[in-house]
Amino acid sequence: MSDREPTRRRVPGPAKPPRPRSAAVRRQPGPGARPVRRPSGARPPGQRPIRLGSPRPRLRMVSLTLTLVLLAFVVRLLQVQAVDAGAYAARAEQNRYVAHTLAAERGGITDRDGVALAISEDAYDITADPTMFGKKQLKIDDGPEQAAALLAPILGQDQAAIVKKLRPANKNSRYTRLATRQTPQVWKQIRDLKNALAKKAGTGNVLAGVFADPSSQRVYPNGDLAAGILGWVNTDGRGGGGIEQELNKQLSGKDGKIRYAQSGGREVPTAGSAETPAVPGSDVELTIDRDIQWAAQNAITEQVQKSRADRGYVIVQDTRTGQILAMANAPGFDANDLSKADGAAMGNAALQDAYEPGSTAKVMSMAAVLEENAATPLTHVVVPNRLHRGDRLFSDDVDHGTWYLTLNGVLAKSSNIGTILATGQLGKTQAEANKVLYSYLRKFGIGSYTGLGFPGETPGILAPFQKWSTSQQYTIPFGQGFSLNAMQAASVYSTIANGGVRIQPSLVRGTKGADGRFTPAPKPKQTRVVSEKTARTLAQMLESVVDDEQGTGIKARIPGYNVAGKTGTANRVDPATGKYRGYTSSFAGFAPADNPRITVYCAIQNATSGNYYGGQICGPIYKQVMEFALKTLQVPPTGAPAANLPVDYKP
Q1: Bond before 331 cis per omega within 30 degrees
Q2: What distances in angstroms separate CA 624 from CA 297, 474, 555, 602, 631, one per listed residue?
Q3: How far is CA 70 from each of CA 77, 81, 243, 524, rounded to the nearest angstrom?
Q4: What pLDDT does 147 receive?
Q5: Which helix or strand (DSSP H or E) is residue 381 part of?
Q6: Three-class SS string for 111-172?
Q7: Do residues 574 and 310 lie in contact, with contact meaning Cβ atoms separated by under 8 Å?
Q8: Contact at 8 Å (CB) between 521 and 539?
Q9: Whole-number average pLDDT of the chain
Q10: What are phi and psi of 140, to 5 degrees?
Q11: 460-499 b/e with 16+ CB inside 10 Å = b?
């Protein structure tokens, strides 16, 4: 054997864990290998390592806060734009936009020939927005007081009253009317002052909240002419009487509206506007003739003043058409300045006064007698000085011996006793006679409205015949014991003049709309009251009142014309006491008597100076007005001779 040791054989044992690698020995990272941590630096002995807090909680808190804030914004946005969008929009519109009414131009009123009787001129309603006078807007405490101090002398108003309007109880009120229907000159003064204040730097414009709404002012070019017919327009722009009130709807038209943006009291031109145009009112054409109206009004005014009477009226009517050519009252008023008007005169007394007519009503009694064939114009009537009927002793207006009159003479001499005797023949008993007479009075229109539809018109008073007192049975035939208005009295004579046919009186010929189209008024109602024969006979009898020397109406004679007329002098009921005091003097008639064209009626209440008999103070007025009307309408003179019916007879 050799000297070398023999080779030992290793028996494999359990595997040992791998030894840690030296820091110097590094495995090169390969693809997909995890990064190798670097050993931390050496720490001083005994010091604990510093650990950084996790950022995640702080991030969560910030995120939550931002989320809540954004959520609040979203909720508010939804509230503003969705839930309360309408309310906010309305509030914005209210603060930015203003709306004003565009007043419609009121229609004019003319006479039958188109002559202006009532017109409308440009005017302004001065308004204000009270919210623009507060401290917040003007930066001063006394904005309303300063504005009122500037406006009061221009508007002619009390300064305190303006302050009250500019500082209303309702602080949210955005509209108040300071003055109505001011002239363009007034608004120009305010506007110039407003603009001057706006140009001053560093000062608030205390008139920024003052505005003007276009309006109109009613003007009556002829002053007090036909004031009782026309009426007036009140501060609200509505008719306050007469035709202005009766036809207010047609005259007013329809107001429009305008809405525009404003800033600081001025319109914003670029913001646009919305406008609904106003529709002008219709023009109204009356039946009256301005010249005849002037003649009638002048005549009655002079006589009322001369007689120192309470009042008087004259009516002129076209007998063929029923159209009223004039309706004059005295005293009257001027609607251009109502502050100077007498309240008692601000109406149409010719339609509103109810009074006992007196002897002018005898023509209706005679119409009934003739129509019922109870007598003729030549029937003899013995008229004593006194007549006992019922509980009274009746007389005529003068003491006389026994008169031997024809029925025509009873009317010509206006005998109360003769009229009582004649109407007593209308029935076998007095009750039957009352019934017949009542029926004729009603057919003549007594106790009924005339059909004019005029504000304040009275239908008069006529009791049913069954309720006539003992004295009324005998006073009603000669015009006492019932009442009527002047238009009703005139219509009675127009009925006789028109051949016994009553035509409903009319004041309006028609209207002309904004399109210029003329619409005539409806045709008036016509009613047969008595026959043409009876009407013609009555016309001849009425001639005797004027033409015969024994007649009571000789002062109404008109050269060249046959005149039919009747006087009246009645005891007057004092409206203040309800007792008889003074007289109602009247005259009624038509001409030419043979071919009637015009009716004139005059009445004067309570003449206290001079004569009070109707023939003496109303007869001349009738003549004056009738002559003027005949010439104005170019009515030719009478061609036929007077009837000359006998007034009396020899027994």
Answers
A1: yes
A2: 11, 34, 10, 11, 11
A3: 10, 16, 71, 81
A4: 92
A5: strand 380-383
A6: CCCCCEEEEEEEEEEEEECHHHHCHHHHCCCCHHHHHHHHHHHHHCCCHHHHHHHHCCCCCC
A7: no
A8: no
A9: 88
A10: -140, 160
A11: bebeebeebeeebbbbbbbbbbbbbbbbbbbbbbbbbbbb
Q: Which of 103, 123, 121 is nearest to 253 (CA)?
A: 103
623 in Cβ contact with 598 (< 8 Å): no
pLDDT tens-digit readout, 497-528: 999 999 999 999 999 998 889 999 999 999 99
Cα atoms found within 13 Å of the Cα of residue 569, Cβ hemisphere only: 20
Intra-chain end-to-end CA distance of the chain, in Å: 223
* Tens-digit pLDDT profile for residues 90-106: 555 544 666 767 778 89
| Angle at alpha carbon of residue 340, lines to 339 and 344, rounded to 5° | 100
List the structure tokens of 78.
């939804």
Handedness of CA 412, 416, 418, 424 (dihedral sign): positive
DSSP symbols for 530-581: S-HHHHHHHHHHHHHHHHSTTSS-GGG-BTTB--EEEEEEEEEE-TTTSSEE
Cβ pair 230, 117 in contact under 8 A: yes
**CA distances in angstroms from 238 to 71, 103, 531, listed in the order given:** 59, 12, 45
Pairwise CA distance, residues 443 & 446, whole Å: 7
Q: Which residue is it, tokens 């002047």?
A: 486
Question: Cα-flanking dihedrals φ and ψ of residue 308, to 5°?
Answer: 50, 50
d(CA 263, CA 270): 12
DSSP 3-state of 311: strand
Query: Residue 609 has which token pair?
Result: 């100076």
Kindly give, in sequence order, each residue whose CB lies less than 8 Å from that of residue 252, ignoring residues fewer than 6 positions away.
104, 106, 107, 237, 238, 281
Tokens of 178: 């300071």
Are 122 and 214 in contact by the 8 Å Cβ rule? The answer is: yes
Spatial neighbors of 261 by CB under 8 A, at least 6 apart, are: 96, 97, 267, 268, 271, 272, 273
Which residues, listed in sequence order, are joined to residue 219 by a DSSP beta bridge? 119
Report the C-alpha gap between 506 and 508 in whole angstroms: 6
pTM of the model: 0.79
What percent of the chain has pLDDT above 70?
Answer: 86
Residue 130 pLDDT > 70: yes
The per-residue pLDDT for range 30-83, each reduced to its tens digit, is 555 555 555 555 556 666 666 666 777 777 788 888 888 888 888 877 776 766
Q: How many residues does the chain have?
A: 651
The whole-number average pLDDT for the span 522-548 is 96
CB contact at 8 A, 619 and 555: yes
Residue 129 near residue 205, CB atoms below 8 Å: no
What is the Cα–Cα distance from 239 to 645, expressed in whole angstroms? 51
**Helix, strand, coil distribution of the chain in percent, nearest 5:** 35, 25, 40
- State pLDDT tens for residues 393-402: 999 989 999 9
